Amino acid sequence: EVPASDQALQNILADEHFDALDLSLSTAFSRQHWIPRLALTAAGARASSRNPSLVVVASGRLFSEHGDHASEAGVDRSSPSSYYIDEVISRALNQRDRHRSFHRPES
Questions:
Q1: How far apart are CA 58 and CA 71, in angstroms?
Q2: Mean pLDDT, contiguous 10-residue spans, the chain (107 residues)
Q3: How many whole angstroms separate alpha carbon 107 and alpha carbon 19?
Q4: 6-15 and 35-48 are packed helices; what angle lies between their axes, rounded to 10 degrees?
Q5: What is this structure's pTM?
């Protein structure tokens, strides 16, 4: 599903449980000026998600040329293309789950 706005995305995330969200940028253009907007979208998605541990990843040329923008963009991981997104999401989910089990209080 491709929501038409950030609000539509937030509504979807509030209505259903999702483990991960991919925010895709252009594979043809770098779109470096979109980093602040992407960070706002990622933050809004996390805030509205039913899943407090939502993994947010991003893909696009920006991340193939400047992979270090993932943290600046407010995402957990990035990929140069959505072609690799399954692997990127899987790694991010595994990292989240390891972090959870490491920080889980003992009973």
A1: 11
A2: 91 96 83 88 97 91 75 86 84 82 56
A3: 26
A4: 30
A5: 0.81
